[in-house]
Amino acid sequence: MTAPRVREQEALRYLGLRGHPADNRTLDLLHSCSSELETGISPRCVSQRFPLQIHGNLVQMGPLEAVSSKLAYHLRNCSEVFLFAATLGPFPDVLIRRYSALDMSRAVVLQACAASLIESYCDLCGHALAEQVRSEGLYLCPRFSPGYSDFDIRFQKLFLDILNAQKRIGLTATDSMMLAPSKSVTAVIGLTSHPQSCHKMTCEDCPSTDCPFRKDAD
Amino acid sequence: MNHIIKDLLGKRLVFFDGAMGTLLQQNGLAAGELPELWNLSHPDLIRSIHRAYLDAGCDIIIANTFGANHIKLRGCGYSVPEVVKAGVSLAREAVNSCGRDAFVAMDLGPTGKLLRPMGDLDFEQAYQAFSEAAQAGAAAGADLMLIETMSDTYEVKAAVLAAKETGLPVFATMIFDEQGKLLTGGDIPAAVALLESLGVDAIGFNCGLGPEQMLTFLPLLMEQVSIPVIVSPNAGLPRSENGQTVFDVTPQQFAASMRKIAEHGAWILGGCCGTTPEHLAATIAACREISPVPISPKNRTVVSSYTHAVAFGERPIIIGERINPTGKKRFQQALRENDLDYILREGLTQQQNGADILDVNTGLPDIDETAMMCRAVTGLQSVTGLPLQIDTSNPATMEAALRLYNGKPLLNSVNGKQESMEQIFPLIKKYGGVAVALTLDENGIPETAEGRFAIAEKIVHTAERYGISRKDLIVDVLAMTISAGQESAAVALQALSMVRERLGVHTSLGVSNISFGLPQRELINATFLTMALQSGMSAAILNPNSQAMMNAYHSFCALSGADPRCTAYIAKYSGQVAEQPSAAGTLLTLKDAVRKGLRESAEASAAEALKSREPLEIIHNELVPALDEVGRRFEERTLFLPQLLMSAEAAKAAFEVLRTHMTAENGPQERRDKIVLATVKGDIHDIGKNIVKVLLENYSYDVIDLGKDVPPEEIVRAALENQVKLVGLSALMTTTVVNMEETIRQIRRDIPGCLVMVGGAVLNQEYASKIGADFYSPDAMGSVRYANRIFGHS
Hints:
The complex is a heterodimer of chains A (218) and B (794). Chain A is an alpha+beta fold and 218 residues long. Chain A is built from 7 helices and 8 strands; from the N terminus they run H-H-E-E-E-H-E-H-H-E-H-H-E-E-E.
């Protein structure tokens, strides 16, 4: 797998620029933060494939059972799922804490770059998983995470236990279900034989219309 | 029989058993299910698995108690002692039935949580969880404690402290990745330094890797250790097949690799995930005739952090001395104001300038030294991987800091007084560490080198009576100022050589003491540094921010061969242009420097402005208008968060210059209106709150920053104590907004009239109103505008 890279436009959007051109000093800072992160992280992922059954709003994914109408709809054309978890490890958190004491402008840019980097890493992992199942005529649906819409965030813990994520990739959840290290993702990825059903969730699909990071804002 | 396991080590190889979880999964254990509960639901199966490993010839059976701690068992319906007792008893029954001697290990696996600051588990909570499990295991009759599959040095420290209190032998193994790193980033030398200093009886690798991968890291481990080594690999790297995790290394392949591992020096062999009784039977057959390779004591003087170890003797070590209030008014003020960020910046600046270790001293008569030391140690360890030197004359402070330090620290200091040695050596024995030993005793500081040597010798011998090796001492022969007696330098240098050559102990000096009372002290200090290094000084306590000192240091390393091929010297000095004094007219105005977010320029302009103007006038006419303009442009969206914060940091740097000047002129400055800021309980990240803090401080508010994951009661207490009119709260998660609501409820109940402003990713105006906040700030500037309105500084 190639090394994940920060996506500049995405990081700028997290910083609130939303399409406004960035000035040179912001860009310099962004490049310097990107390279500090890209060379320092040790990203890891783990996934396991489970059969899927949907009964109304009840979604059964191997040992994980969740009631979620949005997830049920999202997976309606799928027969199986990958439970997937990925993390950039503790390094981004250490850097962000360090620069919070030294230079907040660097801390916020690191935060935005790391957020972009974990997305980019998850996409790379997704490509690798897609490759695994392609010979079976299967395609992957976009990731759907605990905490999205009505998929309760409290599934985070069971999700990690099923994947043995603490031992395998050092990923844990706090009592309030925040992932630690923070630059991490857990997600259900549906497997389907209908490539056209792989609808990619966009900002427009999300009910949070006042979200400052919404892509169609402005 | 429990201590006999230690007697067996070294006489022949000893064999642990193999995987339990893998075999339970084959028998129907579901992913995510707690294997330990099968001690109660499937006792026959557990017993038969133990028996199969015993029949394969294993010496130590690991009870099925890996996750039997109250954090993992929460809500399962059984208590920790119940589950542990069942697990240990089943292993014991299997041993009793097998007809030969074998041992039962109480298994202590990780809690599944990350400790603070990475996660939300407190060190003492982790210790309590391990303590409960370890005591239950000992009570149930375990022969030894096995701490395994640990990927965090901090968690393993909590486990070892708890396990040692049972009095049973303690073995500890950790999980390393293909780069030889822990999942939390630590390396092998750091893990060895920590575990050996905590006094474990055997140390090693388990899980994560197959035997061949572990073999590649074994030489590095063997180079470091002076105690028996355990290697318990997986049956290869895990692979997913039809939804199942599978391992590919066969028993014969496994045994062949384990034979090499034994030949490379491991004394205790076992298996982890994917291994079976067949893997262990084959391993035992392949290795039985191998005699354990003798272990040589390494006698390395090493300290460590959670990331890496620093060894003395390879090149001179720089211990940064700046985190110390002695003689520093600005630092004293920071301590009195609980300004942790100031301390962190002092630490990080020294790191940037080349410190290997940071001395930490928070002793000031009118503050709670222990509390401040603990905050400083945990704060520094959350932002830097440098090992720390805990510097205090208060044994209670020393113990508190040693306990929660993540790694093997330096302690400053012990001395030749009986009382000092009696207080400090038991602490080192319990928590590990290297102590700086000062050559003074009840009779003061000897004037001669022989006298100082004699005290050093006494300290070394006394330490050895406590079971502390001389490798864990660094003798400081004390540099005294030459302005009071010119022979001081010669005495110190002579004592350095004597201690190094005749006691074989590493040495250090607080170098700058030599010039006390003289003008241009750096000239003397830098030359004395070179002389001391030439006399064999292993570590220098100095100010790494002093260019003269670091120039002398780097030059010495290049000249003495401590810097092979002058690599470090060239990296530091090549391409460095001799500094040009800036021409007078090129300085930006302070206003421009802040507008443009140029920190160095802002500092320089502030210093320049102070030559002709009063600090308050500079603040009102330059800084505040510049900040207002930047803030307005941010709100108009013609400038964005990174630029806003660059300006804020530039203003902060300028303030620091003005503040240092004012403190020096008029003593500590009373700040203006106070505001309490906190990220609510359950939230472990506080970047949003920190943005607000830096901006509020720009506007001269006295921000009392309570940090992250702060319980409502603590916020209320701080608000009451400081009589604040305004509290700012931040929450990141839907799951923690309830804690914000509870905090507001308690503020309303206990502090009538106190206002609450809120912000954070999951909030909006509607939600903020619902939970009773007075103001919702959608962005960083909103809170400044609100505060200005409340306090009447529009």
